[in-house]
Amino acid sequence: MGSNFPLQFNTIPYPIWRRSLPLGLGNLLQPLAAHYLAAEADLNPPKLPEEMLNFMTRWGLLHYSDLLTILDALSDDLPNLERTQPEHIKPTTLFDTNTKVRLPAQWEPIDTVLLTWPSIYPSLWEQHAQMVEAITPVSSVSILVTHALWANAARLFLGLRGKADLSRIRFLLLPTDDVWVRDYGPVVAQNEKGEQVAVKLVFDPLPNYPQQLDNTMALRWAAHEEIPVHHLDLHLEGGNIWSDGRGTFIMASQIFHSNPGLTRTQLLDQLHSVFDFSKLIITPRLEREETGHVDLLVKLADAETVLIPHASGFNRAALHQTAGIFRRSTNASGQPYRIFELPNPPLYLNWGIYPVWRTYTNSLTVNGRVLVPVFGIHSDNEALAVYRQAMPDFNIIPIDCAPGANGGGAVHCLTKEIPAPRRG
User: What's the whole-model pTM score?
Assistant: First the structure.
């Protein structure tokens, strides 16, 4: 169960052992991280099935007694493992820059959902499994792994649980630096014919971590899928943009922190050079929250409906201001917004250092379902009830995100939907 206790000591799903630290602190941190945070799987990943078995057993990822069957599963060549090109390979086709693209809304038909398997974060395996199990009845899932043995381990883990449709899962051997695929994954739009176009943005928000693989992920994925690419020289993570598919974009003011010196006029000019939209709504960003992304304080449920946490606690002012913006605004079609108020779990400090913001807005809409983060606290049921009221035509599915919240996100941050091409 989760807790609202103001001071907690939970696993941090970030590669803190990679952080650049002064005075030799990194040398001190690495062995501690290797012992307590599964960092050895990052520094020295399992190379043999026996090593993977030991890793999964050590971190409590296996509850099965037939070791020979497990070793066989870890040794198999997966028929649905696809090997992508190295990071220096570029897409063979570029988008015609004379035309613009439309960014579909999340409630439009979804082709597949991308997840990066949390190989080196055992505390997240259960959460990712729940997401895969909730998605596969309505969409395929593409799981990114850093090497083939992790694909075997993930498939074994999912198979032993027996809840996911394994036939709808692709494994892509596409190495990345971290799991937060929402932010570095491809932004897939549609051209005037309804065909898919990937928009490559700039991803490098954390200078203390290596993120070159994350920054090139969208290009490598597009090359593998043979989708044309449009480059946009703008620092914009996927968690900081909502689109209603009808001309409205919503961002938090983090966009100006990510692009120092950029004015609103310059931002609009850059966005309009690629995207076909007519209105941009900018909200405040949350204080003492590292990402600054809009998906932590707004959920766009449909073109006329937003869900926003109740204005209380540390970020009362930002949330009150955000609700006021939507009360006064209309979408690009001139329609006013309906506002639904979600509960607002209190902030807590992880290890006395990292403020953790848990929010119910960080959900994923996919083909008639909404995967809503819950945290094992009393306000979960109220949040689910608000979703059922705001989105009555959708199947509302809770996902336990208490572990992932310690990394700054939940369902939305850990997934990236790929809109289906428009048919006909």
Answer: 0.95
